[in-house]
Design a protein that fits this description.
Elements lengths: L1 H33 L8 E8 L5 E5 L12 H11 L7 E6 L2 E3 L2 E3 L2 E5 L15 H14 L4 E2 L3 E3 L15 H4 L16 E7 L9 E2 L2 H4 L3 E7 L6 E4 L4 E7 L5 E6 L3 H15 L3 E2 L22 E7 L3 H10 L3 H16 L4 H13 L8 E2 L11 E2 L1 H12 L4 H7 L2 E2 L2 E8 L2 E9 L5 E9 L5 H12 L4
Parallel strand pairs: 5-7, 6-8, 7-15, 11-13
Antiparallel strand pairs: 1-2, 1-22, 3-6, 3-16, 4-5, 9-10, 9-14, 12-13, 17-18, 19-20, 20-21, 21-22
Helix pairs in contact: 1-12, 2-7, 2-8, 7-11, 8-9
């Protein structure tokens, strides 16, 4: 027994010494980081705990609310696993009004969604736009429909009219990463644009497929080689910024302003190609409805349901590629599943309340969206570590962990908006020690890549 006690004591002493060593390393590294000129007018926060014991290893400004950018996605992902379940699937239904007689539908064809952000996405074989449309055409043919004396319609009462959360900035919302969340999403609500730059600095830049997108104003210019993509698409159908000189076909992506229209239009074209005639000049029709304005649904005969990939697969891409659309759809779905009306505000309130009940103070979570894109968000590194600590205790943790990208040899979610950098995640050292951490910086100056390397220098203390 004495030997057992002695060995146990030795182990505890070794852990304590090791923790002190890591804490000392962090203290030295962080002090150097704080004194770096890039942080002359910045504020930073870090919180690190022992993943096994919950003991605080090191912290600075851990209770200070900062913009977390996409590191905030860990809140939405963990909440989704808990409130929706890892097998949750979005549903999109096909139906019709009226009657089918002799192959003729005397009524309208309906597509009714519940916010599936993966519909038409290229990330899964079964969600690709061509695969989805082929499946739908097959189901329509199974119903014996050869002609439609009517139009294609939808019902948008599941989600609020406002597709874009409050607090998103003008420079973001026309670009692919600023796509809004609708009851019907299509091809991740984005499109590709191809540009051709001049051979001299400040030359005009041509939009190769402008005829498809009708930009009202083009202020794009050619910039020095190696400057990369600094082109911005705006919601008012204008475009400005720069791309490098001598680019023959430079691709960027924008956010569609009406994916519902685009989906119904594509379905109309697919019907035409398959000799299923739609009467009238206007083949598709939709109007945005108020929440819960679903009275017409009772007159629809639904005949097919399209299911999204399971939630764990959606969360994987949400975290890996930081897809803001997925986060906004998930937040609205929290509210939709509980109240049959999906709004960003109600979904965010549910998320905040969920974590408040699990020990995070409400004032540590000033959250306005599901993706972290808004600069109005404020969260603490303490709150983020609490979320990650909770996740580690759940049965869905392996799926959550798998979704986190790897940077600097560590599994962690990154975050970037103007003046903001962050990393939150997990690390297991060479000695087998396990850590949970969150590290945020706001209002830094200079090169983002230089700052990231300096942040990695601090986090290397955990290795």
């Amino acid at each position: 027994m004495k030997k057992v006690i002695f060995l146990l004591s030795c182990c505890l002493i070794a852990v304590a010494v090791s923790s002190q060593t890591v804490a000392s390393k962090l203290k030295i590294a962080y002090k150097k980081f704080e004194n770096d000129p890039q942080l002359n007018h910045a504020i930073s926060s870090i919180y690190v705990i022992d993943a096994k014991t919950g003991k605080v290893i090191f912290e600075r400004n851990a209770s200070l609310g900062l913009a977390g950018a996409s590191t905030q996605k860990i809140f939405t992902a963990a909440t989704a696993f808990e409130l929706l379940g890892n097998e949750y699937r979005f549903k999109t239904r096909l139906g019709y009004s009226g009657k089918i007689n002799g192959g003729v539908l005397n009524g309208d064809l309906y597509v009714v969604g519940s916010g599936d952000p993966t519909l038409g996405s290229w990330r899964w074989q079964q969600t690709k736009d061509s695969i989805v449309l082929d499946q739908w055409i097959g189901e329509i043919k199974k119903m014996g429909i050869q002609k439609i004396n009517g139009t294609i319609r939808t019902n948008t009462s599941a989600f609020s009219y406002q597709a874009i959360p409050d607090g998103w900035i003008w420079q973001d919302i026309g670009n692919y990463y600023g796509a809004g969340s609708y009851p019907l999403n299509w091809k991740e609500n984005q499109y590709d644009l191809y540009l051709r730059s001049g051979s001299k600095l400040n030359d005009t830049v041509a939009i190769l497929n402008d005829s498809s997108f009708h930009f009202n104003v083009n202020e794009l210019r050619s910039a020095p080689k190696g400057t990369g993509d600094n082109a911005y698409i705006y919601y008012d159908h204008s475009i400005s910024g720069t791309i490098p000189v001598n680019e023959r076909s430079f691709g960027i992506s924008g956010a569609t302003d009406d994916p519902v229209r685009d989906l119904l239009s594509d379905l109309g074209s697919a019907l035409s190609k398959n000799a299923i005639h739609l009467s009238g000049e206007n083949h598709t029709y939709h109007r945005y409805l108020f929440l819960n304005d679903s009275s017409e649904l009772k007159d629809i005969h639904f005949f097919y349901t399209q299911y999204s990939p399971a939630l764990d697969s959606i969360v994987y891409w949400f975290l890996q590629k930081s897809i803001n659309l997925y986060g906004e759809s998930l937040v609205k779905t929290f509210s939709y599943e509980k109240n049959s009306s999906g709004t960003t505000g109600a979904g965010v309130d549910m998320m905040i309340d969920f974590w408040r009940q699990r020990g995070i103070e409400k004032d540590e979570m000033h959250i306005v969206d599901g993706s972290g894109l808004s600069p109005l968000n404020r969260i603490t590194t303490h709150a983020q570590v609490k979320v990650l600590q909770f996740a580690k205790s759940r049965s869905w943790y392996p799926r959550f962990y798998d979704g986190l990208p790897e940077y600097n040899g560590m599994k962690m979610k990154s975050g970037t908006i103007n003046g903001v950098k962050g990393f939150s995640g997990y690390h297991k050292s060479k000695k087998g020690e396990e850590f949970i951490f969150s590290f945020l910086v706001n209002n830094y100056n200079g090169s983002p890549s230089a700052l990231v390397n300096k942040m990695f220098g601090v986090l290397n203390s955990l290795k």
